[in-house]
UniProtKB/TrEMBL annotation:
It holds the Pfam family NusB. InterPro entries: NusB-like_sf, NusB_fam, NusB_RsmB_TIM44. Residues 196-287 form the NusB/RsmB/TIM44 domain. Keywords: RNA-binding, Transcription, Transcription antitermination, Transcription regulation. Belongs to the NusB family. This is Transcription antitermination factor NusB. It comes from the Bacteria. The gene is nusB. GO terms for biological process: DNA-templated transcription termination; transcription antitermination. The keyword RNA-binding applies. GO terms for molecular function: RNA binding.
């Protein structure tokens, strides 16, 4: 949707260029994911280095000589650091953001140590794997992910990440809570696409919506007699075109799935009343398509 909107705003007709940027933006989601995971790894590394240096101080205090190492010995943080899939993915994508911007890790570490989650966790020097996992998941969800300085850094680094951050954080939080202690391959880096069909869908939806722009617009203009074309918000028009494109040109996608997904997009990106407006139009279109046998869906449960 955003790529189609950008293309229309720029009055561009270079479909190949915009499509390339679309896929590049999707690839960047993987980088965002790896940066967020690596923040957890770096927090442990920096704290371990701090403890080691403190122990070697000439006038080290008793607490510095005998520190509570529960955080740096956290089994989940160590598992992430030693993860083969994670190391390979980071090397492949050349992710070294925190090596070059370690001041942000220090900011995060300060926030971690000031949190109630950290204080409660560090009350004892022993823990189980389950406690370590719960601590890391809670720490990420409640302290790291919402950190304003981290958000500002990510936004400045790549503007297209603004909408991807919640998706990545939700995925990672869920993944951390389900992580089992199965060795160096326990933590996996999710694939961007489920399969080749999944990737083809991105391309096909983008192309078919753009290449059939006027045809798709005609489908709903007649259903909005009280609205001039210019009065329909640009985002709403794009959402309608994409939804209609799925109705008519993607026989394997259930009608209810299409409607629900585009209503969610409307709630997120358009005006407060847009979802009601779009829902009304799509409902009427589906009824018309069914009556005229224009809606052809293959498979069970697709209507």
């Amino acid at each position: 949707m955003q790529s189609i909107y950008a293309m229309r705003q720029n009055d561009s007709d270079n479909l190949e260029k915009e499509e390339k940027f679309l896929f590049h933006s999707i690839e960047n989601i993987r980088d965002l994911y790896l940066i967020m995971v690596s923040a957890l790894v770096e927090l442990r590394i920096v704290e371990a280095d701090f403890i080691e240096k403190s122990q070697k101080k000439h006038l080290a205090t008793a607490a510095e000589r005998n520190p509570n190492k529960k955080f740096v010995n956290n089994q989940v943080l160590i598992l992430l650091e030693e993860s083969n899939p994670l190391s390979i993915a980071m090397a492949d994508r050349k992710i070294d953001n925190w090596k070059r911007n370690d001041d942000y890790i220090l900011i995060l570490l300060e926030a971690v140590k000031a949190s109630d989650i950290y204080a409660k966790y560090m009350e004892s020097k022993t823990s189980s794997y389950d406690e370590d996992r719960e601590f890391v998941a809670d720490l990420f969800t409640e302290v790291i992910a919402p950190n304003e300085k981290l958000y500002e850094y990510l936004e400045d680094y790549k503007l297209t990440w603004v909408d991807d951050i919640p998706v990545v954080n939700t995925l990672l939080s869920k993944q951390l809570r389900q992580l089992t202690p199965e060795g160096r391959d326990a933590f996996y880096v999710p694939k961007l696409y489920k399969d080749l069909d999944d990737k083809d869908f991105v391309r096909d939806l983008f192309r078919k919506t753009m290449l059939n722009d006027q045809e798709l617009a005609k489908e709903f203009i007649d259903k909005t007699p009280n609205w001039d074309t210019e009065r329909i918000a640009e985002i709403d028009a794009i959402i309608l075109k994409m939804a209609i494109c799925e109705f008519l040109k993607f026989p394997s996608i259930p009608v209810k799935v299409t409607i629900n997904e585009y209503l969610e997009i409307a709630k997120e990106y358009s005006t407060p009343k847009s979802s009601i407006f779009i829902n009304g139009i799509l409902d009427n279109l589906v009824k018309d398509y069914q009556n005229t046998n224009k809606l052809i869906k293959t498979g069970r449960g697709l209507m």
